[in-house]
Structures are given as C-alpha cells and as structure tokens.
Specification:
two-stranded antiparallel ribbon; 5-stranded mixed sheet; Ubiquitin-like (UB roll); 2 domains; alpha+beta; Alpha-Beta Plaits
Length: 234
C-alpha cells in the first residue's frame, strides 16, 4: 500500500492502480465516456482529467491511464479541471447532440449552453466498440482508420467483416447507439437508430438497416412478424 493525497485527504491505495480506480474506491466521482470496466483504458475522451502535483507545478492527466505513486497529489474538482471538462462536454454535445448519455453528463456538470456549431455526427471516436470487439468478443472485426478529421471506425476496406459474430457488443457499449435506440417498445417496426447510424458492420434488409437478422437488439424480426399477422404492412 502507498499513500497519496486525494482532494486534500491522505488515503491509502494499492500500488499500481489507476488514479481513476483509486478515486472511485473512495467514492470520488470522475466522469468518463471511453472507460468501461473489463476493457483496457484508452484515455481518448479526456473527461476523466484530474490535476496532479503541487500548485504552480501541476499538470492535467487522464486518470484512467495514470498510475498512482507514493506521495501523489490529486485534485479531481479543481477550477482548472472543471473548466476543461465543461469545454469537452460542449464539444461532445456539438458533435453528437442526440446522445442522451452526453446530455446527461452535460447536465450533471452544469453545461447549459453550447458555443459550437452542431455537427450531428454518429461517432465520438471513444473506441469502446473497437475494444469491446477485440478484447471481450475476440472478433477484431472493426478498428480505427485514417487520421485527423478523417479518423473513423470501420471494417477493413469498408467491407463486411467475416470476423463479425453479429453479437451486438459494439452497439451495446456505443453512447450514440444507446441514446437513439428505442428498444423493443418502439412504435414503428424500424428503430430510428438504424436509420441514422451507419454502422461499419451494417447490412441492409429491405428498407431496414441492421447488423443482426433477426435483430437481437430491438427484436425487429419479431415486430415484423407480429405486424404481418395483424394485417399491417411492415
């Protein structure tokens, strides 16, 4: 065990754990978008930033990737950290304004306006789907491609991957998918998420788009069969 100073309090933590895990162990909330237990830390969303070091000699680091060390001074709610998080949340809201997960985070952190032009994109490049596919599902069907503003998640050569198991794990962890999917109780046979989210492992079924047939996530096939039996046009 080693000792660190967390928000002014001296606490004992296990050597080698991340600042994020140490903070959460003591009930200190640090927001994240790209972090999920069971997946390797990525540090891409930057929302888990904390300030370490003494005043005047401090710096911001991603708490999910930074390991604790003896005598480390950590501030999770300093003015510098709060302003940076709020700025990042504004950017995420502008990038994907329909995401309920991002909306909830913004509300919790008192972001009441967005000063950037909305872009209505379908991906915030958090990398959760890539790591879920590779590390938990052992699929490696999708990955990042290109750089800079062209960076995107896709399959090799933008073609359907033979490695995809149609497990739906990528959609399960995606903040954008979770935000827009209406689930099994959707009023219409086609979930609006499928119409708005061009997923890299997508297949087309008539006028519906989904990467599972039948759709495990929203039970699209079951809904269709129900409408056909009831005399409705799917």
């Amino acid at each position: 065990m080693i000792e660190i100073r967390l928000n002014g309090q001296r606490v004992k933590v296990e050597e080698g754990v991340s600042v994020l895990d140490a903070s959460r162990f003591y009930g200190v909330h640090i927001p994240t978008l790209c972090f999920l237990e069971g997946l390797s830390p990525y540090g891409g969303c930057r929302l888990c930033l904390v300030e370490i070091g003494k005043p005047g000699q401090s710096k911001l680091v991603t708490s999910c990737t930074y390991k604790v060390e003896e005598g480390l001074v950590v501030r999770t709610q300093s003015e510098r950290v709060i302003k940076r998080r709020q700025m990042l949340l504004e950017l995420y809201l502008a990038t994907c304004p329909s995401s309920k997960i991002i909306q909830d985070l913004a509300s919790k952190h008192h972001v009441t306006q967005v000063r950037f032009q909305p872009r209505h994109e379908d991906c915030i490049l958090c990398g959760l789907c890539v790591r879920m596919c590779k590390e938990q599902m052992q699929g490696k069907a999708i990955n990042f491609a290109h750089r800079g503003t062209e960076r995107a998640v896709c399959t090799p050569f933008d073609k359907k991957s033979e490695e995809c198991r149609l497990c739906g794990g990528c959609m399960y962890v995606c903040p954008a998918c979770q935000a827009r999917c209406q689930g099994p109780g959707a009023e219409e046979a086609i979930c609006n998420a499928c119409l708005n989210l061009p997923q890299p492992c997508l297949e087309h079924f008539d006028n519906a788009m989904c990467y599972m047939d039948p759709c495990v996530a929203c039970e699209l096939e079951s809904k269709r069969e129900h409408d056909v039996k009831g005399g409705k046009k799917a």
